[in-house]
Amino acid sequence: MDQAIKRRSFLKLAGLGGAIYVSGLSGWASAAAKAGNAYQDFFFVQLSDTHWGFEGAPNPDARGTLKKAVQAVNSLEQQPDFIVFTGDLTHTTDDPLERRKRLREFKEIVAELKVKDVRFMPGEHDASLDNGAAYQEFFGKTHYSFEHKGVFFIVLDNVSDPAGSIGEQQLAWLAAELQPLPADANIVVFTHRPLFDLYPQWDWATRDGAKAVELLMPHANVTVFYGHIHQAHHHMTGHIAHHAAKSLIFPLPAPGSQPKRTPLAWDDAYPYRGLGYREIEAEAAPKTDFKIVELPVQKG
């Protein structure tokens, strides 16, 4: 794989979201080989927490940031295999008509992406007030799975329930999805909220996330990517790595670092500070560790 060329491409991302190599995800090569698949490197881009519809001092460029992200991804020398948005596509509104307007506008903006394989999931701002009804009108199912070049991807919905639960029905579905997979299958899970108790006082948890982790634990090669907390964060539950992405709208404080979960203030001297993107490279087997580099948003 020409890592140098791809690395330069990632550096062109304007600090919006994350770009992820999956070629060296732990165990991926062996799982792909067993499945009879040719070994193929690929990468995808993760964007998160765009909060379309938000207006306020924490981001005076609120209506421009998402469009910049689309332009940045489109400018990559090599386009990703697919793109994933990990929730909070839009900002909360009590007005059902306004909610649909924001979802429609968001969809129109991201339709400009060159890559047409774009995966979505809701955040609580999109779905918690109507149990995901409006979201499903525009983007379909809130939980699903798909395979790509030997990797099994699972999208979990831990936001349509306003209480922040996955729910027994979806957990049963997850168990059924995992049951036929070999123990060393490479599995990537996308969620909005963290599956572990990061800081429940700020709603940074999933009420029954431990049940999902318990189902995933028998599998040796599982990685979770999520959003919600508007900052890079890394955590291990046993052998399962969890990686939070930065936001496209405003940064939030470190867990428990201040009395309230209020956005960090915009600083004209350092515009876009706290927003950024993540480059994750996973080198080909036999090395199986991630290399994660957080890079700042670039002005302009």
TrEMBL record:
The keyword Signal applies. This is Calcineurin-like phosphoesterase family protein. Keywords: Signal. PROSITE patterns: TAT. Pfam families: Metallophos. The keyword Transport does not apply. It comes from the Bacteria. Coiled coil: none annotated.
